[in-house]
Write a sequence for this structure.
């Protein structure tokens, strides 16, 4: 009996991992390194030992409308990096007192499509935006996308984005 239970638990874990991956509707924006514009790079504000490069596609770079909202078809990428450390493990700061980016850890994507809004993938709603998380090689990184949604969802006054104002209005 115990062995059966262990087996069932293993199946349950496997199934939930698959569900997370299947739920991801945003696909890896292939070629973004060449085709997207880098609009901001900064020490991550909520992570003490990471750096982020923010890039946007052409639709997003056309700007926000008079209400501050981006058009459907907008895609933003956040390249999350580890940062250089001192020998004692503390974060190394540059002469500018900024972190120095090291290895690419995660490609975090947010994409706006009308159909994402019509059929939300989650009870946590972020308008027409949905999220995707990828490893540096473009493969899906098994992340709980509800964590992304939960942190971005309260930003109803800035189209669910943290850095949207760094892209000019139309
Ligand atoms: C705990 C809060 C939090 C969580 C969870 C979170 N983000 Fe964010 N996100 C931020 C903050 C803050 C920024 C601004 C840049 C920075 O400091 O990292 C940001 C920026 C972004 C951006 C650039 C556009 C913007 O809103 O400024 C993308 C794309 C993004 N996040 C995707 C994701 C994805 C994908 C996930 C889940 C894998 C995720 N985020 C989870 C807080 C969060």
């Amino acid at each position: 009996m115990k062995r059966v239970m262990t087996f069932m638990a293993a199946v349950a874990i496997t199934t939930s991992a698959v569900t997370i991956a299947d739920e991801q509707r945003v696909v890896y924006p292939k070629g973004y390194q060449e085709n997207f514009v880098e609009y901001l790079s900064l020490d991550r504000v909520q992570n003490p030992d990471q750096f982020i490069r923010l890039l946007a596609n052409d639709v997003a770079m056309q700007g926000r409308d008079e209400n501050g909202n981006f058009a459907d078809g907008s895609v933003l990428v956040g390249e999350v990096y580890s940062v250089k450390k001192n020998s004692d493990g503390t974060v190394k700061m540059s002469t500018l007192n900024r972190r120095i980016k090291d290895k690419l850890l995660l490609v975090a994507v947010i994409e706006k499509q009308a159909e994402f809004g019509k059929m939300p993938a989650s009870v946590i709603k972020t308008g027409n935006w949905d999220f995707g998380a990828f490893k540096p090689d473009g493969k899906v990184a098994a992340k709980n996308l509800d964590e992304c949604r939960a942190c971005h969802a309260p930003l109803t006054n800035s189209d669910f984005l943290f850095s949207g104002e760094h892209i000019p209005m139309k």
